[in-house]
Specification:
heterodimer, A: alpha/beta, FAD/NAD(P)-binding domain, Flavocytochrome C3, Chain A, domain 1, Methane Monooxygenase Hydroxylase, Chain G, domain 1, five-stranded mixed sheet, 36% helix, globular, B: alpha+beta, Ubiquitin-like (UB roll), Fumarate Reductase Iron-sulfur Protein, Chain B, domain 2, 17 helices
Amino acid sequence: MPSHDVLIIGAGLAGQRAALAAADAGASVAILSKVHPVRSHSVAAAGGINAALKPQDTWESHAYDTVKGSDFLGDQDAIEIMCREAPDELLHLEHIGVTFHRNDAGELGTRAFGGASAARTYYVADITGQAILHVLYEQITKYHETVDSYEEWFTTSLVQDDEGTCVGCVARDIRTGEMELFNAKSVILASGGNGQTFKPTTNALICTGDGIAQAYAIGAPLMDMEMVQYHPTTLTENGFLITEGARGEGAHLLNSDGERFMEKYAPNKMELASRDVVSRAEQTEINEGRGIGPDGGGLYLDVTVVPRKRTLEALREIVNIGKDFAGTDITREPISIRPGQHYIMGGVKTDVHGQVPTVAGLYAAGEVACVSVHGGNRLGANSLLDTLIFGRRAGQHAAQRSRAMPMPTTPTSRLRQDLEHIDAIIARDRSGRRISEIKDELGTMMNRNVAVYRDADGLATAHETVRRLKEDATTAYIDDRGTVFNQDVLGAIELGYMLDTAQATVVAAIERKESRGAQFRTDFPERNDDEWLKHIDISRNGDDEPHVTHSPVTMTQWEPEERKY
Amino acid sequence: MAEFTLRLRRYDPESGEAAYWDEHTIDLEPHRSVLEGILQARARFDGSIGIRCSCRAAICGSCGVRINGQPALACHTHLDQAMKGARDGVIEIEPMGNMPVLKDLIVDMDAVHWKKVRRVTPWLINKEPIPEREYIVPHEAMVDVTQSMACIQCGACVSDCLSMEVDPLFIGPAALAKAYRFVGDPRDAQHSERLNDLAQDPHGIYDCTHCFKCIEACPKGVAPMSQIMRLRRISGRDHGIVDANNGERHEIAFTNLVRDHGLLWEAELLPRSYGGDSWLAKFGPAAGRELLSSLPVIGKALLRGKVTPMGALKAHKLPDEDLQQVKRIYATVEGRDEAERYELNLYISGYDEDMEGAEGPPPDAAAAGAQGGDGGMAGAESGQPGQSPERSPSR
């Protein structure tokens, strides 16, 4: 049985950063991921990473922007930590080899981003996530003696001892189908979000909420799950992401009248208001009949106002996306976009060290977690920062924790149960529905009822549907009976994760009877600080229905105020 | 909507059977991707079809396959595009080459691709001292290595590398492009050591045969072969590395023969590669040994008429006008100064908009034009005058 001080599940930015930090702190480390690390979804982050690094910028300004962006739901102690530690983290990345953009003096250069009062976004063309992810993987390769990398291993469960402490996981080697019990003193979840519960989404096919559901299943609370970010610029055609960097470089949003409609909604920041504000503005334009395209479901993003040479250098990836996936040369004509599911602010509740409050030995960092630094709405270019800061902190803290303790003994019962569960899925007869069908129905329904605008009726329908689909999923069948790369059976397990996390999202959205950040309730259109300036926590016991509680928002120096851009 | 038939190469390692073809008809708009087609077949008809995929947008590098015999990302190839290359009206999809197949369209990248990447010491070895703040490095240098950083490690170039087919130990296009990312990075302390290592290795930079396959295959414009050629140039010209494989001297002999005669003088190539860049080279001991050991090949070439005794004595004759043109090309290329080192880069250079944003970036069309001669998709049109710089909306 593989035994390590620190076991990390997920190998995107948070996971790899955690692994390197834990190894630096002297721990033996395993990092395990269902895809090769460089395939992780962090690779898709385009625009950049925020840090108040310039002498005239301050971390307080970055923190205030983040608090305001969160619609005052973010925990200010965590936000302060993130913004204070950002400059050093950025310099660390530069030192290990990230090829950040330079200005003519050869210093790090920045671009403007949404919701920020200064240009503090550092970037590598529009492949920032890719550049950082690949450089971290270079380091993982360098650390091969202290970090064991399990690539293409699929986690099926977290394992607890008799006291409920998390002491490892059960995982399946996707190549061979072999199941293995991993033993560890501490486990860090870094397995990303659950964007695939929405259709369309900018998220990769692998973003199925695995870690969120696995933690939820062993009693960890999920927080802010109602806060689902719709990105203002996704391709109308297929939901692919057009980076906020485009607007950062000066691109305009136009409606069918050719009007720069953001003037009405955010006269100061215009296109660079925070994402919830811009997405809502767009949805309003579309709903009121000023959309473009055959069904009026899109709006124009006009990049032609950005100097062409600049576009070709700094927005090369979206030039290609426009060309390859929409047949549009964005340097010559506007492209049709609409708001699309992009990120979840919520996740497994943690403290500022990444520790999950009710499950000893368990940590979470990155999109899987909710610290909460994003609150009701995440600012662009704060997600990479979140993954790196809290990935590092979790890695360091877990390594520290493991120093003083012996290797726990991990019970084998979970391994047997998971084996049986997988065998049972493979053996199901073909009387139920297809997995893909259920997944489609879930995604389409969530995108209809749990999107930019929500109301009680739509959410009730959503909850009913999720319950029915959960029932359907228990008899859904698969085709692949093999063991080598049986992606079919993994899809069935992922569907279960998606349904669990979708339910938490719907229940939290029903609970929050106000409009804040990404949650806009047409039946409760105002923000209500008196009653709802608090987190919604969802937990459950075994297979029970979700249980809802509230927890306070941590305030340090910023009182809630009216939010205007 | 339109119907497309996909012919998938299937292989089930557990069945004990050989690989076979499997056809499915799918229904999608023509500009949708081949990957979406495969996923539809998987969703509707057969969940056991094996393919790695994740982002669907050509950024994660998972879905490298061969489509109608050509390496590509399945997500990056439209169905209608693929139809144009279909031989019998059916889009044929196979696993990538040069790597063992694990199941269906899934290959063992670890056994080949990643092993080779590890071969090039793929991490930055810092120039000391590490500064307190960032390293101050030229804007162009970062843009330059960003072309290699754009590599998504999909393996498409490895799949069709002809040198690797002949010499499986060849480090190969992807790993060598990765190596350039460090050699071109001013923050790395071991340029010389890295280059020496890659030049002296018989499976290193001089093992590339310049066939352009990797450039064609790459979905991200990394142009691995160009990176290999830059490694060679920097190795030979800047670091004076003379390799035991004779690659550097061969290259000098080759280019000089073409410069002097307008065409390659085949009979002179081998002696000059080994004996030095002169007609007298053939009388040197190293060239003599090499000529002797090559006698069987020379004999065959003579027999088959590939070389004639006359051709051995005299170079091909080119019309003077053409020869002068060749010489002008050489003069232009060799006359370039250090600053134009980034000539092959697809990422054109631009200006930074700084925090205060008081002054607009100069829309310097002349500067853009000077860097635009690479024939790449971005560079080709970069000479266009920039529009007046639009500022970000007022804050």
